[in-house]
Design goal:
Layout (H helix, E strand, L loop, with lengths): L2 H4 L9 H8 L4 H7 L4 H7 L2 H12 L1 H6 L10 H13 L3 E6 L13 H4 L3 E5 L2 E5 L3 E8 L2 E9 L9 E7 L2 E6 L3 E8 L2 E2 L3 E5 L4 E7 L2 E6 L3 E7 L7 E8 L4 E11 L6 E12 L3 E12 L2 E7 L14 E7 L2 E6 L3 E9 L4 E10 L5 E6 L4 E6 L4 E7 L15 E8 L10 E7 L2 E6 L3 E6 L3
Antiparallel strand pairs: 1-29, 2-3, 3-4, 4-5, 6-7, 7-8, 8-9, 8-10, 11-12, 12-13, 13-14, 15-16, 16-17, 17-18, 19-20, 20-21, 21-22, 23-24, 24-25, 25-26, 27-28, 28-29
Helix pairs in contact: 5-7
Protein name: F-box protein Pof12
Pfam families: Beta-prop_pof12, F-box-like
InterPro entries: F-box-like_dom_sf, F-box_dom, WD40_repeat_dom_sf
Length: 447
């Protein structure tokens, strides 16, 4: 062999196409190692098609199809592979932010009880908080929490504690302890004017809005439903008020639009914790159908005792995502149910019970991508679950979903404090949790 052949750079022996074909059949560990050989090999190893094939082989096509956060514009498959690997291994970076101590906002001139944030809402990567005087919008970017916009309450509503908030598109609603409901629009430049649009005799403790329908549950256990009667402005009219005094807190209000029939139908589903004599606690359902501003159906969800798993304690949290109802329980479990709604009846079918917490679950949330985030009381434990075949499952008796606990970490920071979880959100590759002590915890799975 000649001296020239011996000293030839091995990185140049194969053509670009040949190397690309070879790299596409290697493991992720091999590809990362080959990136260090030369600049040319590094550029090939970072080719999107290489990591796209790895993603398919490792996580499967079904997972890509059901992952809502992967859009057509997002083509960095290496980052996708790293992110999904981090989800599976629980590898993430934790950040804690104190909103009241943020340098971009000064609350020192206000009394301590008025400066404290009363409620918080997470929506599309934004954090919305308000005290008795103002509404704040926060942005999380580059591992920093920044206050983007603020707006003051109308003078006559200042010093009234907010109880709950909700958002639909660019319409933002705040329910106050006096029974008033305030509205503002989210714009690129901040908030529009904050005005009162409703006043209810009994204050609302939960609020939900979708498809121009606003539903609220009052403290005296009445479900109020309002329809926006104007396309150009916010002007709600009362559709109905129903007593639901027999249900047990917590309660989830879910609004769905059904276009499968000849007429557009709005379906309001009220999911709650219910006790069944001689069995225990489970999930109950009350459903309302609305057509042309008229309530045409009002019925209770049916179930078979043999098809339901019961808990010894009532649910500490109830959350509905599409036809799935997720309940959290103080006995360290989560329960997932499925609601099937037809012309003749609505049925609640048993799904799956998730076990893995060592402390009572305080709050949990199910997302469209098939992941569940659950938090124990005092925020001592946070678990993330991945539900396989979330979109593909067609049979729900039994509910054949493979569950996998993918992250469980003991959070010692809040072990002794008596803080409560206000809201949970998953956006891109970040989990955010807002707490009643004014802090926000962020877990970055792509960091």
């Amino acid at each position: 062999m000649s001296l020239r052949a011996k000293t030839k750079n091995p990185a140049n022996i194969f053509s670009h196409e040949t190397l690309l074909h070879i790299f596409e059949s290697l493991s992720s560990r091999d590809i990362v190692a080959l990136e260090r050989v030369s600049k040319s090999w590094k550029s090939i190893a970072q080719n999107s098609s290489v990591w796209h094939n790895l993603f398919l082989s490792e996580f499967g096509k079904n997972r890509i199809r059901r992952r809502a956060r992967i859009s057509k514009a997002r083509k960095n498959w290496k980052n996708e592979f790293k992110s999904e690997s981090n989800w599976n291994s629980g590898n993430c970076k934790k950040e804690v932010f104190s909103l009241s101590k943020n340098q971009n906002i000064c609350l020192t001139k206000e009394p301590a009880d008025e400066a404290k944030f009363k409620v918080a809402l997470l929506h599309e990567g934004r954090v919305y908080t308000c005290n008795t005087k103002m509404l704040y919008e926060w942005s999380f970017n580059e591992n920093k929490m920044t206050c983007l916009n603020t707006i003051s309450f109308p003078e006559e509503y200042k010093s009234n504690s907010p109880i709950t908030m909700c958002v639909d598109g660019d319409n933002f609603y705040i329910a106050l302890e006096t029974g008033a409901v305030l509205h503002t629009k989210l714009t690129q430049n901040g908030f529009s004017d904050l005005n009162s649009i409703l006043h209810i005799d009994s204050p609302l403790k939960s609020l939900s809005v979708r498809h121009n329908l606003l539903c609220g549950l009052t403290k005296d256990k009445s479900l109020c439903m309002f329809k926006n009667k104007s396309l150009s402005s916010i002007s709600f009219q009362l559709l109905g008020k129903f007593s639901v005094s027999g249900v047990k807190d917590p309660i989830s209000i879910h609004i769905e639009l059904d276009l499968s029939r000849s007429r557009k139908i709005l379906i309001v589903q009220l999911a709650y914790s219910e006790y069944v004599i001689a069995h225990g606690w489970t999930i109950g359902l009350q459903e309302f159908w609305i057509t042309d501003s008229t309530i045409v159906k009002n019925r209770v969800g049916q179930r078979q005792v043999s098809d339901i798993v019961f808990s010894s304690q009532p649910a500490s949290g109830v959350y509905q995502q599409g036809p799935y109802v997720l309940s959290s329980h103080a006995d360290n479990t989560l329960m997932l149910h499925y609601i099937s709604s037809g012309l003749d009846s609505s049925r609640i079918q048993w799904g799956i019970q998730l076990r893995g917490h060592v402390c009572g679950v305080e709050k949990s949330k199910l997302f469209e991508c098939g992941k569940i985030i659950s938090v124990s009381r005092n925020c001592t434990e946070i678990c993330l679950w991945d539900l396989q075949n979330f979109r593909e499952a067609e049979e729900f008796r039994p509910f054949m979903i493979e569950s996998k606990l993918i992250f469980s970490r003991y959070i010692q920071d809040y072990e002794q404090s008596k803080t409560h979880v206000q809201d949970i959100e998953l956006f891109d590759d970040t989990v955010m949790i807002t707490l009643s002590d004014g802090n926000v915890m962020a877990f970055l799975f792509y960091a």
